[in-house]
Queue: 4 jobs
Job 1
Amino acid sequence: MGAEVTVRFTVNGRERSVATDPDRTLLDVLREDLELRGAKHGCGEGICGACSVLVDGRRMNACRTAVAKAAGRSVVTIEGLADGDELHPVQRAFLELGAFQCGFCTPGMIVSAVALLDANPAPSDEEIVAGMDRNICRCCSHPRIVKAVRRAVELAEGGAR
Amino acid sequence: MKPRDDWKAAALQAAGVPADYDEPVDVVPYRFDGPTLSEPDRRDVLKVLGAGLMIAVAADAAAGRATGEEPPRRGRGGPGGRGAASVAARVHLGEDGTGTVLTGKVECGQGARAELAQAAAEELRVPFDAVRLVMGDTDSVPDDGGTYGSLTTPMTVPAVRLGCASARALLVAAAARRWGVDASEVVVAEGKASAGSKPGESLAYAEMARDPDAARAMSATLPERVELASADAWKTMGTSIPKPTGRSIVTGTHEYPSDVVRPGMLYGRVLRAPSYGATLKSVDLAPARSMPGVVVARDGPFVGVAAPTSAKAAEALAAIAKTAEWDVPPPKTSSAALFDHLRANAQGGLPDRPPHEEGAKALRASYEVSYIQHCPMETRVAVAEWEGDRLTVWVGTQVPFNVRGETARAFGLAEDRVRVVVPDFGGGFGGKHSGEYAVEAARLAKEAGKPTRVAWTRAEEFAWAQFRPAGAIEMEASLDADGAIATWRHINVNSGPGSVRTPYRVGKSDCRFLPSDAPLRHGSYRALASTANTFAREAFMDELAALAGADPLAFRLGLIAEPRLRDALAEAASRFGWEGRSKAREPGKGVGLACGLDKGGFVACCVAVTVDEAEGRVKVDHVCEVFECGKVINPDNLRAQVEGAVVMGLGPALFEAVEFADGMVTNGSFRDYRVPRFADLPAIEVHPLDRPDLPSAGAGETPIIAVAPAIANAVAAATGRRCRSMPLRLEPRA
């Protein structure tokens, strides 16, 4: 662990500046310093996807990303997806289909689905499975999550936002 | 038994759960030097619920002294807990018209929050949104037993209904008194009492909340008889109410135990041994102590650190872990030698002769079920905060009252000095049955003089959480001249007695569980041993059907005595198209079926698989499952539970197995321990059967038990080779 530095980046559209050891993970800084606790610690190994956030639009595992890597970039977390009270189509779809049980993986699932649909607005079922396969759900709501991603496509096409 | 408790025995019986039902747990016996046991001081009034009718919960929820060396294995009062003694202990009627229902049950994804609030809304006759539910806060809720054993539906739903129906009866009585009419004339709807002969008059719960007579009645013991809403008149129960926490879940604002933050809170870590049973010889704490802001605690075998960030805590722990020296005992066994070890140490020994006469048409087979981990997405997390000798712990656990006792014992406190609060947490699956992480957080918080959080890492979760026990299962049976089962033997070594008895008509039967010398810390798991025993039984039934020259479906249907099980199996076979599909012969493809019952639920599962024999790979293509658990309370949540059980069941059936050697897990990460993922998804059909004429049973567990044997049977059909292990190990065919 190194000495503290000041890391500046944008989180959910807001400029943030954090004095921190630059080796700390982006996830720890989001949760412990910036009070954004929507992204979860699931494994710390970059395998389960519960910590998924968007960094410059790309899905990243925040638990394996040093905060220094986020310097100067734009980070979007689950808290940044809704527009005021208006949910993102992916959030609406998950809610509508009840695509969660305990919900602990849900923020990561939703962020991953947003990244998937940003890159591919009309994915096939195979592409949904491939795109979501870096996220684990232990309650095993996978069938509903696939349906929710499909539904999100419909909602987005309908100009849902 | 008092008359008002009669329903509990009946409910347990209907749910197929013995009155002394308990789930295994292996508690870490932390004991810290503390004050001599403090005296209980009963606090009678709660402050958390606001104004209104609210009395004397402490008399129910608070506890005696934590004196015993051995923790009570379950909450007092049997599998359903002691419950609420008064209406007030179950429901708080607010002056704002809300009903706050109190329960010791907890929510970890299974849907108890919606279901119990539905039960309350139904009996109070208020809209669902007018009910608030306080779950798992030991200072304010009655002890409803652990959240396990599929018992929320058969035990806690009726308990909540009784409490709320009693509150409704009080409203009716108050209205009848006020208007001078007969109580039978008073009806309650939308939270208000009215009477046909008193047009324009109404009495709401909110008004009753200000009535001192009503307050007295609320605090009296629950009435012996109270009328419950009949299923055909249900308005809220029986409907698909979504999870009340849904919006907070999809926006990331739901507060899980790991999201609890207290003022000045530190992040704690605990030093773990390099292998099971290792004892600490020496450790140098100085490297951590010299770090600014780091607190170090050593107390007997416990060593831990706390720091202002989790990264700093990890750094401090690593610094002292390097210096630790351990006495390491020889390991009992390894996963490679596990099943021989279990069989060799079976208590009382395995039978040495067959149950049938020599020369009978008979079969014998050994099945093996590996250790697995629950690996809930949220690891074990607790936040502890001391205020003098009072302790509050926010913790993800299925057993809040047991954790209160466990924590109190560790510090020599009376139980009522400890408050356990369980926020809706990130998955349990029968794994979160103990409170050592709450104790660890509390010990560090005591050292630091600040609130402290302990969140287990994923590696700790894999190595130190309780495992679902492995089992060696010995099956033996013989057929008579008519193809009926003349003798039947089913011996489960180590994994448990659940579903060890066969639901098929058999002649002489010998079904037993033999404990063994378990090398790993084991405890419960979703459906626990029912999965292992149903796997062995249902796979063996296919082997017997082959011996009898019978179709697996016809063979079973001819031998099932229980009509509900037969209905489920026939329905699944018909929906799946068993008749046609079981006769189709396509290389590398096969279909299989299995059925079973446990805890008042009846399940049947048909699957289709594709097997790549060269690679030894199995792909499950299609699962069709029928599940029946009496009257359905929340159809959509039931469907979610069954779908989840089917997908979760793929893991232990196909690839989950904890490997261990030299006294430590060797595949303790999601990289090495594979759980079901999107790419593993088959096409899944779930058909819940509603039986409005039957009492409602739980659905969290039983839907998982038939998945693995149906897959094993399908693989055998596809390959002609019988795999007798969970997970299925299909050696590549050369």
Job 2
Amino acid sequence: MFRNLLPIVVVLAVATMPLVARAATPLQLQSVKIDLPDSDKMFPAGPGSDAINNNCLACHSAGMVLNQPALSKQAWTVEVNKMIKNYRAPIAPEDVGAIVDYLTALKGAK
Amino acid sequence: MADHGVFDRMITRRRLLATTAAAGAALLRPAWAQEMVHLPLPGGPGARQITTAFPQKGPMILQRTRPPLLETPFEVFDRGVFTPNDQFYVRWHWALIPTDIDTAKFTLTVRGHVNQALSLSLNDILRGLPSVELPAVNQCSGNSRGFFQPRVPGGEWANGAMGNALWTGVRLKDVLDKAGVKPGAVQVRFKGLEEPVVADAPPFMKSLDIDHARDGEVMIAYAMNGEQLPLVNGFPLRLVVPGWYATYWVKMLNDIEVLDQPDVNYWTKVAYTIPDTPFASIKPGEMDVKMIPINRMVPRSFVTNIAPGSKVNAASPVTLRGIAFGGDCGVARVDFSIDRGQSWHQTQLGRDEGKYGFRQWQSLLTLPRPGEYNILVRCTNSSGVMQPDTANWNPAGFMRNVIESTGIVAA
């Protein structure tokens, strides 16, 4: 149970303040050097797995693809073509069918 | 029920932030023990790894390693209205992200349709311009995409691709004024240091209309929650566009270009577009819909203290608590229902930390009889916009804000 109604008073006080308040002393930024983790996960072996492993993993790790829901072959075709047309994925034309078929087999809608 | 900082009128903002940070650190131990989380996405797959492999970050739900997509575990949102930096979600578009930032060498360029092109050091920005601070929610356009039905491709987030921070920085307006915007400027385009692996792929850039850029609210932030940004959250500078989806909040911002023509780059004109319909909603398969760039956020609210599937005692009051945000304005009210929306009960709002931030809400909940209940929560924002009772749908999985339902059992 709420102990009191004072928060309402605070709300009214805050509402009258300017939206963007002046901040206190600026902090000192420190240089940063880190290493980001990489993923060595490959697409599971199967027909077309060489095509997808060789063409797709340069730009992104496999995880997000493996987390996709079941999608139709048409939807997978749209995705692969988006990677090529919009994001300039250098996929050889002869590999496109193999990648779409692989994804449809792995993640195809019923 | 333990006291919660945001409801305690005596707590100061600084103490609140310290509390948030401590809560984040305390989470490390139990989360290491648990390696996987299950996201309840319809049709699955819902299994995700909890990762602690990212420098400057605590336990995060791993959606993708490279480029990183890291989701905030939902229980973090129960700890207060400010999301700790080390568990603030992460979303990058391209894989080439600098991992070595020398603060003495970093510069922000301001160029294009201006009187005087600028190259500002971090010192110029931190010491040379008035400093401002503002709490604001940063939410991915595709937050909650994994709940879309029919499902759509993309980052399959649950509800954790959002966070609220106290942002500290300088007004974009002040930076633009320093360069002197020439008459005829129409938009301002922003680019950060990330680069695509493939050289001719479109670099990630976003634009705002000139009046929006100069509204005095859009900020260039150098701190979140009183600390410098974690590198994967955009260190050293990040654009803050209060009330707008995070796609505009360009990370590692190092280039500002004032344009005298509308921006036609891929990321503004083609990607991140939504149907120009209420709540960006269309019927699956609907074609020939006018598309516009995604823009203002819409209201949302969540239960944070009772997990779905929890059991509570019937006929006995329990605390129901959560967070809400108004989208592009403040929260006017949050109501809940236990009878599928036939009747609604107003909750009590916690302290207002700023209209663009999270607002905590709380109420007593008594489930009259044993049985299964769906707890619905509904935010109405200060412009009168209410969360809808049916889910929106669009092919990109953007702007989900349907009334959330939490199934619990009274025994």
Job 3
Amino acid sequence: MLSLRGVTKRFAGVAALDDVDLELDPGEVVAVIGENGAGKSTLMKVIGGVYVPDAGSMELDGSPISLRSPSDALALGIRVIYQELTVLDNLDIAGNVFLGREKRRGWLLDEREMRAETAQILARVGLNLDPARPLSALSLAERQLVEIARALSMSVRILILDEPTSSLTLEETQKLLQLVGELKAEGVAILYVSHRLDEVHQVADRVVALRDARNAGNLSRDEINHAAMIKLMVGRDLAPARGAAAESAGEARLKLDQLRTQRYPDEAVDLEIRAGEILGMAGLVGAGRSELARAAFGVDRFQGALLVDGKQVSVHAPRDAINAGVYLIPEDRRGTGLTIEMTVRDNVTLPDVNEFASIGLINRREESEFAKAWTDRIKVKTASIETPVVNLSGGNQQKVVLARWLALKPKVLICDEPTRGVDVGAKAEIYAEMRTLADAGVAIWMISSDMEEVLAVSDRIAVMHEGRLAGTLEKKDATEEGVMRLAVGASS
Amino acid sequence: MKPRGQELGILVILLIVCTFTAIKNPVFLHLENLQNTGQLFGIYGIFGIGLGLVIITGGIDLSVGSVLGLLGVVLSILLVDRQVNPLLSVAIVIGAAALLGWGHGLLIARFRMQPFIVTLSGLLIYRGLARYVAHDETKGFGDAKGFEWLRKATTESWHGVPIPVVILLVVAAIMYIVLHRSVYGRYLFAVGRNEEAARYAGINTRAVIASAYVMCGALAGVATVLLAFYTNSVSPSSHGNFYELYGIAAAVLGGCSLRGGEGSIIGIVLGTALLQVLRNLVNLLRIDSSLEMCVIGVVILIGVLADTLLRKRR
């Protein structure tokens, strides 16, 4: 049905897509995989009409098409759900679902009709909410589902999903995959872009891999397995992430004593993170994990006490936590982890730029040498340290955040979703770096919604459920079911 | 989308200020005072709504005051010096204002210039042109020979209500439906909150943004005619000075966010009313008139601060 031949797109001379071919048939789910920067997002945007390719051709049903804008693609029944949410929090759910295609009476909005139809579609995606609810009152996962509901509300022939499950819980993910199956049965052609190989394995009829902006190979249904996919993506076999449990965890470096967050003021959490261990923290979205981390880093106010190396510290702002040697790699890399328009160097040295200053003036040379040393050490791939962070891939951006804190010799490192949106190769490097730190006596507190990651990387697993610590499991006792049971609040 | 709480809040403040002023100086309630304040309220409200639309798209228009000055001069030249048909003159003024707005919209939406810069340039350019065209002399309408009816139609009252207020109410009613009930209004909010997302939804965001500036211009054109006859003389260097800032302040007091995507017509109208009553209060309570701007500035700060604090608590 849809066929791309030799599609090429350059930005400032650099090829984001280089001679890429793609075929898509009705009733077929094709997964597109590849590391960050491999060209997946550009490909989606070309098909969605956002970018006009520099070369190559596109055909729909055998006749050539040319997409100059997103509305051209919409008119042909091509619907893209982008990774960055495109829903608007100043409208209600129905307003978002019908944005750009409002039901009208004359030139006025027909709110009643839109809300009625929206209610039906919401039921289909398993979102039990009033269509008149303002979007600002919804969680991230719920907004993602609204985005999907919007796609379903229109006649769609080709549905493109770009990392649709990155903010969904396990249950919501299953619901989504089931929906994908239903749409496929209705004859919709689906392009599914995901880093989560489990999902790809579950839904894809065919896998198309991209590497360095080019086609890297295809897999048919019976060839799809983790090893084959990883090999196509990185172009080499990858050793499984090392998960050697620390032999003996040391003293508690960070202790949360009866800590209550603003989100869950009735739940007091007691938790220790010990020297030399990676504590994985699992839980469903909204279980209060990030809130706990933000409290410990002084972003949010809290009640209770924080002890670092046995001594109580009073933390009212991130500066207090930093002075105590407690650092946070936040969940939202682009929003809070980095100042993405600034250079790699400036981002690395930002928390401690005073070190390079005398009478308030920064010694640029010293600062640069320092930033260079640390980014080299953990192999940040960047043209130079003068490059704005925004030009780096997700994995390399995350390494810049890591470099910033490594340089400050952490006692405790809190990593909130450290590998979200990070490609396989960089993931392995980030795990390795976390392990090296732990071996050097740092206490690592890793919050993750990726079950595979939690089980593979952690020495000990703490599971949160609705603001309370539902339980902790030693690595040897931890199974996926065991963690899930705690996460959904069932007594173990 | 429509900050109901804020509209109610500003209505309460408006009533309190009115009551306070009326108790302190009963002249406030005299018909003449009410009609005079009403005239200004109507004029400011009309271009304030235009500014509100632009602010909802995430933009700003700093040129409104200079447009009032330039086109006020032009109106006087057309009617007095050239003796052009009054109806045609009004049409030319409103048309020219819309055209200037279209120019801003084009530069902002098509050439991606920043609204602040484009309209700041407009502020300077139109003010300079006004002085040049008028040879820096004050223009006026004298005894309005030949267009007496036009002066009547812009400055008198209809069943006791000043004409500018009547026009404001009509404009507000229409714009209320356009903004809060129509597809186009929905697009204004969508574009203001996240232009990229709106574009991805298939909305012609450039046209939507440009159209807001055209409407802002046209409404400034209507206000030009009313203001020129209200003052009856147009001093090219000062006529309309700072008016855009009062309009922006009223819109912000009424719940528009300068980040875009938020605001309501009722809020803008109430915000305008509050500002005009405050100016009247400074007058009636014999506060030194040099403090007028100071009082208004403090009220805006307190109003917006209160709103921010209340929002946090919710």
Job 4
Amino acid sequence: MRPENYEAQRQPPSHEYELNIGPNHPGIEGNYAFKLRLHGDRVIEGRADAGYLHRGFEKLMEGRLWIQNLAITPRICVPDPVPMEVSYCLAVEDLCGLEVPKRAQYLRVLQLELSRLASHLFTFGGHAATTGMYSPSFWGVADRDLILDLFEELCGGRVYHIYNIPGGVRRDAPAGWIERVSDTVDYLETRLPDYDNLLFKNQVFVKRARDIGIISQEQALDWAVTGPNLRATGLAFDVRRDDPYLVYDELDFDIPTEHAGDAWARALVRRKELFESIKIVRQVLAKLTDIHGPIRCPIPNPLAWNVPAGSTFTRVESSKGELSWYVVSNGGERPYRTHVRGPSQMHAVQVLERLAVGARIEDVAQIMFSLDACPPEVDR
Amino acid sequence: MAEGKELSTWLDNLLTELEGIEIRRKSSRRLRVDVAADALPALLELLRGRASYVHLSAISCVDWPQDRQFELVYHVWSYEMQSLVSAHTRIAREPGLYISVYDIYPPAAFFERDIHEMFGIFFEGSPDMSKFILTEWDGPPPMRKDFDSEAWVNEHFDWQDYNPVWLQELVAQGGGIAIRPDEQRFSRKAGDEPIEHAASGSASGNGGRQ
């Protein structure tokens, strides 16, 4: 909200004060404000204030063709855009009954996992920065950039790829790209011990992150926490394995868990997921050299595409948690209604407001980043 | 473990306890349930309490003005059964009042607040119905089908000439931007003076798309 519309509490108790964090602050990767009421260094109450990134995507999508909406979907979550594209495409494919060729499915999984790697690398950096350590953020962003280079070569876009379309992907991998992905992944694996030494064995970080923002498993289930934040409480749930989509049921990967449920456990789960994603990428690369064929099934003229009436609910596992679309078609050339449910809609609002209570002020930014919330997902 | 006997016995129990619900199996992990508005809280309580559907994935709202109804869809997931139930219900568009399921599913608070803001449905018993995303908005609920973004823009904002230096230079060279009148998406109010675009004069004839 605009500053002139902010109403401070009229007569606060003398020991209390209010502090507005944001909309720009180190705790989150976007514009998102958090209003705190404090007693000394302790938070008494926290209120999330969203809306700085609201672009009305759901309304916009009702006025655009099915194919045009692909340009909107990745913009709903900037650090991890691929799951948005893929899940929207899955919804359209489900409504039309399209069968996506195997090669396209593997290419999608490859993208999804590369995007997960990029997003986790970004999150480490941010999380470390909230504890005053800036080297991991430089390293993380630099390594993420290598993945963005791969995306650029694949589809021309570094952040917004728009590489998926309903029915498959736009074009096949360029010559030599598979080898370059393999090289990059090998390089990233050699970096993992460095990250461990820099961050995960670093007592400065460990001591700051332990016992901060604890979520018990019961609370996590009550508050609809998903993704790495849920796995950090000990529940091994992953949409990729338990509600499989694409070809994840043909791939071999583990679901890392931790039990403490604090910021440290969440960081550790992401660290372990890096390794699992690398494992998946290698399997997919091996499959891609064997599986040839079309990368897209035949689709109608995309500019005059009447998607059959119906509704569908698709969900995928993004790097932040469960991401789902509810898409309704009335048989027209534009969606009748699209509703996106991002994991951050829970993490950045209800969960954050609850976890902030009782925390010390210097830990608030860390709690926010350890939840890995993405403000544009909340605002849409 | 989700398929087969377990799910079907659960379904039977559900059917016997609630009347007037329609169940459709969409796939092995997706179930669609159509239920009357007054029976929905009972259904959700049953799903959560007795059938392990503890995770409220989302509440979606769809506006059907021709039926004068809102459709509310509650998507709930069971970690044990590994299946997702979408419970569809319809409420009257006027006055747009419904009951909150916050006491059954705490995450409903966010979705209900969002639907209240975007569709104008009031959820009785929801902990917070204050504005969240559209803090400065005082117009009608924008996600309703009868809310016309173009009309709102025409009514509340002035059109401005867009004539930057680079465009002037382009026009001086005989180029410019050409927009066919029938392609202009944001049509202006009837009776408006035509806007003098830098490109609309000499440039529109020879520039732009052919």
